[in-house]
Design goal:
Elements lengths: L1 H23 L10 H14 L9 H5 L3 H9 L14
């Protein structure tokens, strides 16, 4: 009887650990990009990704023109992530 209880307790613990591990896995943003957003990102990468690594680093992002930043914002990309100034 004790062996059965130990086995059941082990199965319950293993299941709980597996479920918790799945919940703890970081997930990407829940929203998928629209066709417009994909096109804008493709255009920005072609234009500003100088090292051709498929993403924009700090230096590359700093070179984005105001017109292109506005284009990205209108498409719903890259907005709202600015840090507030600590003095405010």
């Amino acid at each position: 009887m004790k062996k059965i209880l130990v086995v059941i307790a082990g199965v319950i613990c293993a299941t709980a650990i597996a479920v918790h591990a799945d919940d703890a896995t970081p997930k990407k943003h829940g929203k998928k990009m629209t066709d417009e957003q994909k096109q804008v990102m493709k255009d920005m990468l072609e234009k500003y990704d100088t090292n051709k690594d498929g993403k924009l680093d700090k230096e590359e992002k700093a070179k984005i023109s105001a017109e292109d930043k506005e284009k990205m914002q209108k498409a719903g990309l890259g907005g709202g992530h600015k840090k507030k100034d600590a003095s405010q």
